[in-house]
């Protein structure tokens, strides 16, 4: 029996065609390969760049320090321990920057939009092939 209003029953994935399944599998595979590319064992974090209130701070890593940064929504506290960085506390409403957790790989970033704070790790990549 067909439901009222001309809607189909989608509980058995009958709404997917063969082409849809192929595209889905390709996207899932590409996502898996992309994750592997971000885990570079030869990459080393060498510095932390912090932008806040129109200023840019560059901290060479490893370091042990805590930064208290003022922003439009209040303050943001950034903790640097060794080669890992995290936002410990922020006065922003959603606290997405705090929930991001610890970052420790080159290219990773923590952004607090309400306080206009950007924390980004950068470094050098060691070539795995040498002669």
Can you tell me about this structure?
The chain is α+β, with helices and mostly antiparallel strands. It has 2 domains: 8-38; 45-123, N-utilization substance G protein NusG, insert domain (mini-chromosome maintenance (MCM) complex, domain 2, Sandwich). It has helices spanning 18-38, 96-99; strands at residues 43-52, 55-60, 63-71, 74-82, 84-90, 109-112, 117-125. The protein has a 4-stranded antiparallel β-sheet, with no helix packed on it. The model has no long low-confidence stretch (mean pLDDT 82).
Keywords:
about 130 residues; alpha+beta; mini-chromosome maintenance (MCM) complex, domain 2; 2 domains; 3-stranded antiparallel beta sheet
Quick description:
The protein is an alpha+beta fold. About 20% of the residues lie in helices and about 40% in strands.
